[in-house]
Amino acid sequence: MQYESACDFVMSKLRAELPSYLTYHNAEHTDYVIASAVHIAELEHVAGDDLLILKTAALFHDAGYLKDYKDHEELSCAMATKHLPDFEYSPEQIDRVCAMIRATKMPQAPQDHLSKILCDADLYYLGTNHYLDSAHRLYKELKKTGQAKAKAEWQLKQVEFLKGHQYFIKKVSDEQKAGKEKNIVHVQKQIEATIHHQKNTLSMMIEDAFLILFGVILSSFAINFFLLPNQLIDGGVTGIYLLIQGTRHVSSLLIIPLNIPLVILSYFSVNKRFAVLTFISIALLGACMYFFHLFHIPDFSGDKLLMSIFGGVFLGMGIGFVMRAGAALDGIEVLALYTLKKTSFTITEIILGINIIIFSIAAYVFSIETALYSILTYFAATRTIDYVVEGIQAYTGVTIISGKSEIIKYQLVNELGRGITIYKGERGFLPGKFEISEDCDIIFTVVTRLELRRLKNVVHAADPKAFVFANTIKEASGGILRRKHEH
Questions:
Q1: Residue 399: CB atoms within 10 Å
Q2: Which residue segments constitute the domains of the chain, with CATH numbers given?
Q3: What count of other Cβ atoms lies within 10 Å of the Cβ of residue 319?
């Protein structure tokens, strides 16, 4: 076996003929895999002809990229079969080389010791200090070939791959364990940095500023011209302010110091960004209410039923827009979130308890009638917040069970353009036919409210007897920003 001559031949072709967009699968990568294979071979005491076979397989394992990006392992085997006889490799030796090359195809499936060494050498960089550089070059290559898109998505896949990957050679696994764990931490930090950067782009900041300003104006409009003139009370800190205002005629700016303790609490219980945006929103609300008060614009007083409903609607719209910017106009939920950690009550129960006290005080100070109208205002505001925050973007999870699942899957993906998840299950077990059942695919997908009717039509056209049920998607965690607002 004339390995050195074969190496000169292959490496010269890789350096001269590989496309420039191959920033990862290039001649330098092949050199690295050969060196890594030699290192692992020394750990495993592999020498002689076996070492030459291993090095030859490492040399040819990515040579197929000279022909095409797809199925490069088979193309690499074809090149090895064509050229290795010129360097005095026997058919048996060439078969061994090809078997090792095929083992490197993802997911790796080595069948013998040398193949395991080559597979580990191919991914040896996962536990090294230059992993981040190699991963970046691989991402650039995959993005150029259309196999990778968003950076954050790629990084998430890398974390998943690193956590799931196992080296086949125990000595390599032990050697690289600490390095892999360190690299997982590095990538996770990159993900956080990428998400943080995306959330703080100029366009996002402008959009958030517009939502906060618009929400503040709507809320102050509702409070000044609907709630205060009709002695209507809302829930939360805003309700406490309205109670005080209705009896003592204090400054509109009082709403700011009332919320400051809860803003400070949110800094520690939620995050810094939320606390800062919430303080800015509340300060703007106080200033805007004060501004409206200075101009003595005629208020809307009259039919309390109309005032309570429309006051709640405008207030809910304002609060909802501020929530969409990642802030709040009322610190009561921060208190509820903090109390949740100290008690067994849910956030909804805590907020309900606080608001019962506020409305009870309103009934005592003003009248039972006013308190009841105030509850109607609170309900209108809460329902409006739900629509503004979720709106037409509210997502619905749909589960479909059908004997014609293949047709439905094709329609959902290719006609509706939705991603789907398949669960394996059994259908049947009907009354009187309990013993009859068959395996089936249970289809799950997520659509918006506006797409739900179209999805049902597509499923009905494919299988009128399909069992379809839907449920609104709710956040299981995530604090108070994207969760359905209890107000």
A1: 15
A2: 3-199 (1.10.3210.10), 205-391 (no CATH), 394-472 (3.30.70.120)
A3: 32
